[in-house]
Design goal:
The structure holds two protein chains of two kinds. Chain A has helices at residues 32-42, 56-72, 86-95, 104-108, 111-120, 153-162, 184-191, 207-215, 226-229, 235-244, and strands at residues 5-13, 16-21, 24-30, 47-51, 77-80, 99-102, 125-133, 138-142, 147-152, 167-172, 198-201, 221-224. By secondary structure, chain A is of the alpha/beta class. Chain A has one domain (5-244): Alpha-Beta Barrel (TIM Barrel). An eight-stranded parallel barrel of chain A has the order 1-4-5-6-7-10-11-12, surrounded by seven helices. Chain B is an alpha/beta fold. Chain B has a single domain (2-205), classed as Class I glutamine amidotransferase (GATase) domain (Rossmann fold, 3-Layer(aba) Sandwich), CATH 3.40.50.880. Chain B contains six helices and 14 strands. Classes of the chains: A alpha/beta, B alpha/beta. Chains A and B meet through helix 2 and helix 3 of A and helix 1, strand 8, strand 10 and helix 5 of B.
Chain lengths: 251, 206
Amino acid sequence: MLAKRILPCLDVAAGRVVKGRRFQSLRDQGDPVLLARRYADEGADELVFLDIEASLQGRGTMVDLVSRVARELFIPLTVGGGIRSESDIRLLLRAGADKVAIQSAAVGDPELVQLAATSFGSQCVVVAIDARRHQQGWEVFTHGARRPTGLDAVSWAHEVERRGAGELLVTSIDQDGVRGGYDVELTRAISDTVQIPVIASGGAGTPDDLLEVLTVGHADAALAASIFHSGDWTVAAVKERLHAQGVAVRL
Amino acid sequence: MIGVIDYGGGNLASVGHALDRLGVEWALVRRARDLDRVQSVVFPGVGSAGAAMSRLRAAGLDVALAGYLRSGRPYLGICLGLQLLFEESSEDGSPCLGVLAGRVVRLVTPEKVPHVGWNTIEVAAAGGALEGLAGEAFYFTHSYVVQPVSPQVVAARTIHGLPFVSAVAAGPILGVQFHPERSGGAGLRLLAIFSASNPRALADAG
């Protein structure tokens, strides 16, 4: 039986792991390679690196980081942040990334999703959707949650699936870094609309938050950052709690 | 020396890193004559069968690989490297290497497709090489599965809503649908078992 996945996420800026709240007020959380090693040892199912500066200089740092981590850790690595072209994708896959997460560029140029799926296979194309709750439904935002797009998140999810995305990484802007629980309704609305796996992101504060989004929210995987960076919970402890509550996880 | 097939489409970095970790000597195989220098072959592949086959053909590797596979030397096919062993893929109607009888078909399941993540294997009759790995979880990411004509080549099955063939074995040929190079300790163990099935690789590893 396919296990629900737990994905620690490392937001990287200037070669350091940082974490903000609702995409603001970043704080230093440590060395990415050390943290990656710790999470892999604790049983992380995959690791996600997001380059939150996404500058030219940041890109070089990220390629170097991916290459160092891929040499040492033998679990899947997803890299996102500022990916705009086929050549960006090729560079990261060559460095050892297994998947890339495309976000703003997918909105600006939806054909990039198709191009990436055709050239490298859908299995490495994750489309990241940052969504903010409205009175009815959720709107897609880009550029670090600063730019509204007018796109409905559920329709957009369906659209990128049609274009060849292999997975979706759905982040609730409202819940990001707040540690008050995922937006379970958002996750479920998207997961029930598409056939491809959905990774829920934004809001994990306790193992019960992961439990809720993986069960009630129909998520296939749960991404979390602060809950692990803070040291309050190890990946292993979270997985044991999930296992005890009947969720299939890899122990 | 293990030859790692480079047809210009696969993600080779992680397989290379895993073999490095095991202390196994390996080299890329890009042309037919590169196969003469290796004692065993790992074929890691992703993407569609048709694209991979046309690239193999362009490099003259399709005929050379089929010849290699009939030569009795060890082969480990990963994901697409497993699927290409069969006769045809329904993904794009592409003919494959045709070393094993059967087809590659879309995964039929009430669950989500692609099948992405960690799942366990149940070792079947032909799974001698996988003994000791029964019940271990490996990382999968695929939408297509192999359908061998002969049940005697089935080395492992995995359940994703419904059971599918997740590994095949026929003599020195082993094919796995999952990615040992991305499957942590269990994956490294499988690669070590395969490397050890090649005496020269063991000697190289010291």
